[in-house]
Design brief:
- By secondary structure, the protein is of the alpha/beta class.
- The chain has 2 domains: 235 residues, Periplasmic binding protein-like II (D-Maltodextrin-Binding Protein, domain 2), CATH 3.40.190.10; 147 residues, Periplasmic binding protein-like II (D-Maltodextrin-Binding Protein, domain 2, 3-Layer(aba) Sandwich).
- The protein is built from 16 helices and 16 strands.
- The chain has a 6-stranded mixed β-sheet, sandwiched between helices.
- Strand 13 and strand 14 form a beta hairpin.
- Helix 10 packs across helix 15.
């Protein structure tokens, strides 16, 4: 998979490097600081948390802007705007004390791959924790208007004809994702494979930072992409293509971004960790209220955050999906959710699916004990403690598993027997990709 630093036609892209810059903010004085008992006071008042330009960074942004962090004694939290997921990965490796970051809003599979040393420098295993899920649903696969006649939709098979013609002509169609092995890569691969298209043999995969997706498709550098909002909506707003699907159609209420921290930070500062979690949970509750969606969109669209036209955000976060091909779905059940439908709770069964899919595509060795890895990284116990502390006991699920998951094409994933799911998949990567294929992506 190619990592894109610059597209053809002279389009300059933001290269996935380890540089970053802080989005300087002044917290709104909206919430009074709670009287934190001295025994429960955070060990530190700050943490360096990375994010990139996507709508689902909203809980972190709202926790900062609405002073939820300050409410729990974490008023000096810094939100670090990063250019790409690669930069997030690099700066997590550095850590906050060495000029990097302590944690991040992140694609859910990345902490597992870091913990296994599959995407870190020199293959070093870096202990990571997942503390919460930040949202479910709300991503999309979009395609250039050149392929309007293919009428590709949830069933990707109609696109297979275009893929075959391009392959026979010696020029593979190109799809782009935001990070190989991340959620967008897995949604794209699942959809292509369901239509009989092998993403490794039949097409060329590219890695492009989210804010650069639209300009690259416009330049003709790729044909379709999978990314979070608002970039699918922007593509349509600019009249450049249409959305094949919103990812909740592949897997209803699927997990997406996660709140991750370096394990050493959490172990060193357990009270600060709990404070961060409480703040993020309260921000998620706020974001999920329908009456707050317009204000959330207005805040997140600002230059210091996602830096886009509010109209690229507002429609889809309020549940109206304009697919750009004449189809409009109001009140979509696949609207991005931050708290409802157990959106915040980090189900271990979710993460086991991510591990299994990474094994499917050769990103993780088949011999990796998925359940053991999930138990080491997923700290749903800390989520429960924080939820109790903010009087959200009723939001705590009875199980760490959501049970059997059913995908749009009829395949089922039972977290009790992930090998059965794995063996049922006809299209998958044979073997394990070399470590060199990862470094720099």
């Amino acid at each position: 998979m190619l990592s894109v630093g610059a597209a053809t036609a002279g389009v300059s892209l933001l290269h996935a490097c380890s540089s970053n810059f802080t989005a300087k903010t002044t917290e709104d004085s909206i919430l009074p600081a709670v009287n934190v008992n001295s025994a429960d006071a955070p060990e530190v008042a700050t943490a360096r948390l990375g994010f990139i330009l996507l709508t689902d960074c909203a809980p972190r942004v709202i926790a900062k802007v609405k002073s939820y962090f300050a409410k729990y004694g974490m008023g000096e939290v810094e939100l670090i705007k990063e250019p790409s997921w690669t930069s997030i990965r690099d700066n997590l490796e550095l850590g906050g004390t060495d000029g990097g970051i302590d944690g991040a809003y992140i694609l859910s599979p990345i902490p597992y791959l870091m913990a296994e040393g599959r995407i870190t420098s020199g293959g070093r295993k870096l202990p990571m924790y997942i503390l919460a899920r930040l949202n479910v649903d709300g991503q999309g696969i979009s395609i250039a208007k050149t392929y309007t006649e293919a009428k590709a939709r949830l069933n990707g098979n109609p696109l297979a004809k275009n893929v075959k013609e391009a392959k026979d002509a010696g020029k593979l169609l190109r799809y782009a994702v935001t990070f190989p092995r991340g959620t967008h890569d897995l949604w794209m691969r699942y959809w292509l494979a369901s239509g009989g298209i092998d993403p490794d043999r039949d097409m060329t995969g590219l890695v492009v930072p989210p804010p650069q997706m639209v300009v690259n498709l416009k330049s003709g550098y790729m044909d379709l992409f999978c990314v979070g909002e608002p970039w699918n909506a922007k593509l349509i707003q600019d009249g450049l293509g249409y959305s094949v699907l919103t990812t909740g159609e592949i897997w209803p209420n699927h997990p997406e971004k996660a709140f991750t921290m370096r394990a050493e930070w959490v172990d060193r500062y357990p009270k600060a960790t709990k404070a961060l979690l409480m703040a993020v949970q309260e921000a998620q509750i706020w974001c999920d209220q329908p009456e707050n969606r317009a204000e959330m969109a207005q805040i997140v669209a600002q230059k210091r955050w996602v830096n886009t036209d509010i109209n690229n955000i507002l429609g889809r976060v309020k549940g109206t999906f304009d697919y750009g091909n004449g189809g409009v779905e109001p009140n979509s059940p696949h609207v991005m959710k931050f708290w409802s439908k157990d959106a915040s709770y980090p189900f271990k069964s979710y993460d086991l699916w991510f591990v299994t899919e990474n094994q499917r595509w050769g990103y993780l060795a088949a011999e990796v004990d998925g359940k053991k890895l999930v138990d080491a990284v997923n700290r749903e116990d800390l989520w429960r403690e924080a939820a109790k502390a903010i009087s959200q006991e009723s939001a705590i699920p009875k199980s760490t598993s959501r049970g059997v998951e059913t995908f749009f094409d009829g395949f089922q994933f039972d977290p009790q027997t992930p090998s059965v799911y794995f063996d049922s998949l006809n299209i998958r990567y044979q073997g394990l990709r070399s470590l060199e294929q990862f470094i720099g992506n």
